[in-house]
Amino acid sequence: MRLSQFHLATVKEVPADAELTSHRLMLRAGMIRKLASGLYTWSPLGLRVLRKVENVVRDEMDRAGAMEMLMPAVQPKELWKETGRWDKFGSELLKIRDRKEQEFVFGPTHEEVITDFARNELKSYKQLPINFYQIQTKFRDEIRPRFGVMRAREFLMKDAYSFHLSPESLNETYEVMYQTYSRIFSRLGLKFRAVQADTGAIGGNASHEFQVLADSGEDAIAFSDRSDYAANIEKAEALAPAGERPAPRAELKRVDTPTQKTIADVSAFLGVSPQQCVKTLLVRGREGLVALCLRGDHEINEVKAGKLPELPDESVLAPEEEILSATGTRPGFIGPVGLPGNIPVIVDRSAAVLADFVCGGNADGTHYTGANWERDARITRVEDIRQVVEGDPSPDGHGTLQMARGIEVGHIFQLGPKYAQALGATVLDDQGKAQVMMMGCYGIGVSRIVAAAIEQSHDEAGIIWPEAMAPWRVAVCIINPKNLPEVREAAEALYRKLEGRGVETLLDDRGLRPGQMFADLELIGIPHRVVVSERGLASGTLEYRRRGEAENRAITEDELFTLLA
Amino acid sequence: MRLSQFHLATVKEVPADAELTSHRLMLRAGMIRKLASGLYTWSPLGLRVLRKVENVVRDEMDRAGAMEMLMPAVQPKELWKETGRWDKFGSELLKIRDRKEQEFVFGPTHEEVITDFARNELKSYKQLPINFYQIQTKFRDEIRPRFGVMRAREFLMKDAYSFHLSPESLNETYEVMYQTYSRIFSRLGLKFRAVQADTGAIGGNASHEFQVLADSGEDAIAFSDRSDYAANIEKAEALAPAGERPAPRAELKRVDTPTQKTIADVSAFLGVSPQQCVKTLLVRGREGLVALCLRGDHEINEVKAGKLPELPDESVLAPEEEILSATGTRPGFIGPVGLPGNIPVIVDRSAAVLADFVCGGNADGTHYTGANWERDARITRVEDIRQVVEGDPSPDGHGTLQMARGIEVGHIFQLGPKYAQALGATVLDDQGKAQVMMMGCYGIGVSRIVAAAIEQSHDEAGIIWPEAMAPWRVAVCIINPKNLPEVREAAEALYRKLEGRGVETLLDDRGLRPGQMFADLELIGIPHRVVVSERGLASGTLEYRRRGEAENRAITEDELFTLLA
Lengths: 565, 565
Prior knowledge:
CATH architecture of the largest domain in chain A: 2-Layer Sandwich
Oligomer: homodimer
Helix content of chain A: 25-40%
Radius of gyration of chain A: 30 Å
Distance between the termini of chain A: 19 Å
CATH topology of the largest domain in chain A: BirA Bifunctional Protein, domain 2
CATH class of the largest domain in chain A: Alpha Beta
Largest sheet of chain A: 9 strands, mixed
Shape of chain A: globular
Largest interface: A-B, 51 and 51 residues
Number of helices of chain A: 16
Number of domains of chain A: 3
CATH superfamily of the largest domain in chain A: Bira Bifunctional Protein, Domain 2
Strand content of chain A: 25-35%
Number of strands of chain A: 30
């Protein structure tokens, strides 16, 4: 592409609400322009990158035997009623009324539509397993769209849905998709981890998220330093500490802690470490209050807590009055010793192995020291209810856990029979009996990947694209202040040779000053830059710089071809 | 592609409401499935064809120097307010309210969004001319969606928008787009005509429609039998008949025509030809009634009439009471002779050259014979207000007009400054002065092309794809009732050779009976079919049939390669 014939519009200033680096750089590079809150136009430059991602995704999905199709963006209410999600999905579901007052949604996902398609198209087990996918525009009416295309309302997504007769077959395709996703993100040149994830609102059994690692990521990931183990922090298991609980040695003593309500205050005041304290949270359960006990240095994991049978999916801390009326004590002084008998006491694995610990005194302004489970305090059940922390043993038994931040760009689920059951999607098995199909679903946030790649790879000057995502792999710059025809011709010739070798090349023929030219090319992240100049022609070399490196190198044309081969 | 690994689901029965051949065949072939009124899922088979069209469109747009981008489907109300189309577009505009009660539309077209983009991105005349396009899902809330994807609500469209400093530059790009569209439809293997069209609601100056010729087409086209002239019938000019109006010879006579109100009845009753009669329509003008006079055998062209200064854009016939009160006469007996002086008389060119004609008597139950313009009847103005008919002289002076039916698949417009003016989209010219940009817009109905191609090319057995649109160019069928390994291997080898030569090939390895196999392949329209069988292997030949031909031919493998080269 000759840059003089392309619409490149880099800008210096971006709106103050663009907080995230990728958002700022995409605006500065002119890849996207905001149309309205959460709605972005992809400029020719931005679309080039988006299509690179799209094409790698398509290529690998096809290679995995999935079949591309295209479902409507607008979906009828009736199907969402059938699965119950019309009411349950929440206000991210953009509802639409047509001229005849019929209701529709702008699809945020397509489980309903594909299952409806499948119940009509698939009749026999012989057609299974089958995996359909599409790459299509979706809409989620985010309450607070932000971070540019990272959390836009309208976005491009690849969604795939597989159908099976048995859980084993679902497992097999799930495994193929796991490998396919790994190939996709590897080909795109991204550092990523496949992490075990909670299945959340979509439901189902196994689930993995594919996270692009970046310090700015919204998600916390725990991974082993010695194995492949990685999990979303919501999901990562905290093992029980090794060894038995020591026998009690200290006596239970009530001590005055007049204003010490937090673990930090109490442990400092009493001169014990937080690891020797037990903190007690009183939360609203399905039937009355429930006590959750954690070691003082640990935090509750709300997703794990939400799975306790005593608690609703989203538990909340009981308000002060409720605690006061149930226990006669204010929050900050609650503990497991002497708690009313109708309150279940769920103890985290790490808290359960403590002996002679400090805990709330169940009387305002007091704590206990020398407290011990069983002897002094009831345990209803020991459970894993805490957040893992760096240094915890990896749940697979290999190494210890490290923490990282990630951006979710892919998610695979084993849905099981959930949607097929709701919509009555059955096939006849080899006995001629109708069987509800099992389903898997597999999503990739195509437009989000573009932003995630920038979060992972950029510097002060701008974006640093992985080769597979760059709008062009190499830029040929003409520095020709005397406007010598031989310089122009040499640059044109090099441009044509590169294009002839199938290397996507940008010829910067705008005639700008070198500083302006280089600033643009660095901002838009072109991986390789060569300069054709009078001086270079004289020495038979090109001035080459790899994006992200600080120094130029003089190389020959052949060396350039080798480097780009 | 091995058909055993593809989701092909042909069906025998289609719903009764599928009236149009292309709709029926697309359903029978399993290319599309209806999700809701005007909303269709494209199956893997259908999408393969849709992508072929999309890729040819993209390739030719790129070659023409247009730049692909991607705008949001959801557009904010404010922009539509700025151009006035929020109110004027009508109820085909699907309006959406988000969770914050802000209003949006699901874009049926993108003039507003691109002009907003341009007013922010384009600053200088040096950036012009420029041509942006996208291939994207659009929505029009049709009152009566029908004919499958031919008139769906959600559809895939290529829309392009060019920006210019001068009308000359707009003209140049318009001409390039005209040629590009011609190349696109030629490459797709379609019989089409570029016809002059009315600019309609989008406004602007020049406009051409690209019509795929098909008897079932909704649009009537007039074209010359001796030149390139072609026009939408709404637009085709009816020339004035050659020669002067003859001098009056007959006397004006009022005759009784007690029950004869129509031209057919009057001309039969009086024994004159309809060509010798003048029919008079009284329509509601901007200020009172207007008389439109046509030759008895001609029909009014409402688009032409709508352009008369006396008439509103959409004129309606005056109701009986209004005619009665204005003229004292009932419809059927109105004529230009003695019409009240306040009613303008607009006479069509062909009616204006008549002498001694028959017309209404302006008294119930009577007509005049021997009527003559000027002598007996006023002419306010002579205009072209009729529909052309077959045999009319071509307006370009070459040949006579023929009629055909067409399906509109493309439309190019010179919009001029309309949208740029409304949205204040200006650039600085070479004098540093702000100038409103001129615009062109260029649409192609990508999904509609698929249906139009089928309307143009099918037979009893199913679709007959042009090579460029076929899901696969050739099908290799295995007929192997004895399940001989050499037959299977020969078919596999041929399949691999064809794919190796870049010929998209479908291997029908489903093991069906030949009849079923051939019926499917004919239905889905594969252009070339070869059979590998025991008998063929023995003779060293393949049984070949071109889709649409009635006979098989025995050909060698080399002959097949030559044929597909």
